[in-house]
Design a protein that fits this description.
Mean pLDDT: 79
Radius of gyration: 12 Å
Strand content: 15-25%
Number of strands: 4
Strand order of the largest sheet: 1-2-3-4
Shape: globular
Distance between the termini: 23 Å
Structural class: alpha+beta
Largest sheet: 4 strands, antiparallel
Length: 83
Amino acid sequence: MKLDFLDRLVCPHCKGRLVLSAATEELVCPPCRLGFEAKGRLPNMLVRQARKLSAQEVETLLTPEHPGAAAAEALRDAQRDLQ
């Protein structure tokens, strides 16, 4: 999934920021603990089809060592540059 439009996507449930998990190919909403499938060109943003994540799973996805954390940090840097 391209990161160029990721900054425009928000969680459909809480409207919060999403984090890309490269390991699971999901967009993750940490507050809602939902994982939205992001395989292919368009992510599946339906709440009823989202994968429910445990608190431990969300914590693991947000650690700096996790592959998706680098992509999420790059996105945050790009967003700061645009402001």
